[in-house]
Design goal:
Blueprint: E1 2-3, H1 9-19, E2 27-28, H2 32-49, E3 52-57, E4 60-65
Parallel strand pairs: 1-2
Antiparallel strand pairs: 3-4
Amino acid sequence: MIGNSDYQDGKDLAAVLSQLYFKVIHKNNLNLREMKQAINQFGNKLRKLGGVLLFSWQCFMMILIG
């Protein structure tokens, strides 16, 4: 979960998903380099463990199962 501190959505959604037993990587206010690192970290875990990628940008949402 990559969020912006000006909006509480990322933090709130990360908390809800964690309560539903999803493993959540939550990062906030990242620059481009940090964002790429976080995406790579998540991708590595997804490849290793399998799972679901939920991508949401404003009103657009995509779910990938790996």
